[in-house]
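Dear H.,

Thanks for agreeing to be a second pair of eyes. The structure we're designing against is below in token form, covering all 655 positions.
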């Protein structure tokens, strides 16, 4: 073989290798896009399923019944108990229908918004029926709250839980089997059913004696792994229909998509149950997002001022991310003259009960709590719920905020949003099946500047009735401030590409936290605009953070989690669609017309605006690529100088 032939073959091999590398890159891009599309397809399929009526709906005979009738054999007793026992004049929407179904011994699921009156749906029937209604409730605090209310109405109800004494347990077991007992409602935790064979034996005897009238599953969404608050012990409830085939089951929740509903029906073996679903709208609740100050001291001062000026001497809840924060915030509020009490799971049960009771009696005005102060908390005159930190999902936020304004009077839901809190929360939820997806739903709720808060909630829960016909009546910050704050859509394509270039130009053995990435991007924009108006949008720090979040939720960025002996660290890296961004020509975020002073100061530093608006896409791309190469060293230098923030020594979860 001649030298020329060898050269030709080697040249061809190089061309083949080059093309193979190109194909590998193209395949990698396509695989990334496929993964994103498959994930998106799953989300869209679930949403479509949520919009469709359940395939396992009520049976044919039930569909023809008007459950709103008032001529059932128990109708007069129901109306009498409503007025004389519960001191109410009228039923709320779907209460009468639910009462009629469960008294007809038919299984039923009810999805009703917080404050909609779910508890009455089983408390009133329990007074009409002979025998006992068993209520499964997930939290001791929830049971205590309802027991306190029932006893104030002279209704004989009790509870069995981990704190019950032996004498109390013996007394309850005796009442369960006593035909002359006046005990009407018994609250238990799901753990009591799952782990106590003695209690299950008593239920069996009560069932055989005809005294077990109804099984109520409160917060029934906890049965489903698709739900936002799955609890393993709720799975045990699946055996109840097998052991007690003729028992009537009533499931109640404030939040459930169609996927959760279908899963619950399957788990509880109630495929032909009657389903009632009310609108999720709380017309008396004002929804508001506030930017959270960066320092704790600033936040506490703003919070204390807000409570004193707007909610003086009124009842409310402040939800915090951690037990430590809830304790500290409570102390800080007390030091500023606000009657506040702390509530979290590590407190002694008796201490928690005392704080709860003081709040119910208005001896304490503000409960500062973790989510342990949770489902079913019912104080009618609670005027506000303030979130110190981001909830882990829109479902959680909806339930937590819904604890305000249950008396129908105007109340407020205020969420303090901060960029860093997103990544703090993500380190806690990323191991859950849909943890990040659920978290991003509440992030979108917070950074969406142009959509009514009620519409965002309605879309999430597929509340098509309200979405089509409802009116916010200026009961959210967006609708109220529409005239004063005009929202404009701005193209931040160049800035988005710069975000990716910062990640690409970071040394291979280094990674960036969300805070560090935002810092580098913002400082890079400021630096460039001092020399030339390269980024004419003049994004301020908050807008840079919103850009990063928008890229994250659209798969141009993704979170990368790492475990250490003491914590979980979240880094931000290029996402599966990052390489597709440069094939686009635009990328939008929203901005209020009243641009911040930071952006204004940048604009003063910038030189006169360059005529980039009419540049071709190709020219912009060439300039951007040149800029990426030129800025590589400076990006690495900035990163190295601030490397200490990448791996703090703190044992707390990083964000």
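And this is the sequence the design step returned. I haven't edited it by hand at all.
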């Amino acid at each position: 073989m001649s030298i020329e032939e060898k050269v030709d073959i080697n040249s061809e091999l190089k061309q083949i290798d080059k093309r193979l590398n190109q194909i590998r890159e193209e395949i990698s891009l396509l695989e990334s896009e496929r993964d994103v599309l498959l994930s998106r397809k799953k989300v869209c399929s679930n949403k479509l399923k949520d919009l469709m009526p359940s395939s396992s709906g009520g049976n044919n005979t039930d569909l023809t019944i008007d459950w709103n009738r008032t001529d059932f054999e128990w109708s007069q007793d129901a109306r009498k108990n409503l007025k004389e026992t519960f001191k109410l004049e009228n039923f709320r929407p779907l209460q009468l229908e639910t009462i009629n179904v469960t008294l007809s011994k038919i299984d039923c699921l009810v999805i009703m918004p917080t404050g909609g009156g779910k508890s009455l749906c089983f408390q009133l029937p329990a007074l009409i029926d002979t025998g006992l209604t068993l209520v499964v409730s997930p939290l001791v605090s929830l049971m205590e709250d309802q027991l306190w209310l029932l006893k104030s109405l002279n209704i004989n109800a009790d509870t069995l839980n981990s704190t019950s004494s032996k004498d109390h347990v013996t007394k309850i077991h005796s009442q369960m089997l006593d035909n002359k007992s006046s005990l009407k409602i018994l609250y238990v935790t799901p753990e009591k059913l799952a782990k106590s064979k003695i209690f299950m034996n008593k239920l069996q005897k009560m069932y055989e004696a005809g005294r077990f009238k109804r099984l109520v599953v409160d917060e029934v969404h906890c049965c489903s792994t698709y739900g936002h608050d799955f609890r393993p012990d709720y799975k045990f409830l699946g055996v109840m229909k097998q052991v007690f085939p003729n028992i009537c089951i009533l499931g109640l929740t404030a939040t459930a998509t169609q996927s959760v509903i279908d899963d619950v029906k399957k788990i509880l073996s109630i495929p032909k149950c009657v389903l009632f679903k009310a609108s999720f709208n709380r017309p008396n609740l004002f929804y508001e997002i506030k930017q959270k100050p960066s320092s704790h001291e600033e936040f506490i001062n703003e919070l204390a001022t807000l409570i004193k000026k707007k909610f003086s001497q009124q009842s409310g809840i402040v939800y915090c991310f951690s037990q430590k924060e809830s304790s500290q915030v409570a102390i800080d509020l007390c030091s500023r003259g606000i009657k506040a009490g702390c509530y979290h799971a590590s407190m002694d049960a008796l201490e928690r009960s005392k704080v709860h009771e003081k709040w119910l009696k208005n001896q304490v005005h503000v409960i500062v709590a973790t989510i342990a102060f949770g489902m079913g908390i019912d104080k009618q005159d609670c005027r506000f719920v303030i979130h110190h930190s981001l909830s882990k999902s829109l479902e959680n936020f909806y339930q937590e905020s819904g604890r305000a304004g249950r008396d129908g009077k105007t109340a407020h839901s205020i969420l303090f949003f901060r960029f860093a809190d997103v990544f703090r929360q993500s380190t806690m939820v990323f191991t859950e099946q849909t943890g990040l997806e659920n978290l991003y739903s509440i992030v979108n709720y917070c950074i969406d500047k142009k959509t009514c808060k009620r519409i965002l909630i309605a879309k999430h829960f597929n509340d098509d009735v309200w979405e089509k016909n409802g009116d916010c009546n200026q009961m959210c910050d967006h609708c109220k401030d529409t005239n004063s704050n005009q929202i404009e859509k701005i193209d931040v394509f160049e800035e988005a590409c710069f975000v990716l270039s910062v990640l690409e130009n970071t040394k291979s053995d280094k990674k960036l936290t969300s805070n560090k990435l935002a810092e580098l991007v913002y400082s890079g924009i400021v630096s460039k605009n001092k020399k030339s108006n390269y980024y004419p949008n003049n994004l301020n720090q908050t807008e840079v953070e919103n850009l990063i979040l928008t890229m994250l939720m659209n798969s141009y960025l993704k979170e990368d989690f790492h475990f250490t002996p003491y914590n979980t660290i979240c880094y931000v890296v290029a996402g599966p669609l990052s390489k597709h961004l440069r094939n686009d020509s635009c990328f939008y975020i929203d901005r209020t017309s009243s641009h911040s002073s930071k952006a204004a100061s940048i604009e003063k530093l910038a030189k006169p605006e360059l005529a980039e608006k009419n540049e071709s896409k190709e020219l912009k791309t060439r300039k951007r690529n040149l800029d990426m190469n030129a800025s590589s060293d400076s990006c690495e230098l900035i990163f190295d100088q601030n490397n200490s923030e990448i791996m703090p020594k703190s044992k707390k979860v990083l964000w």
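Two observations from my side: The radius of gyration is 29 Å. The mean pLDDT is 84.

Warmly,
E.
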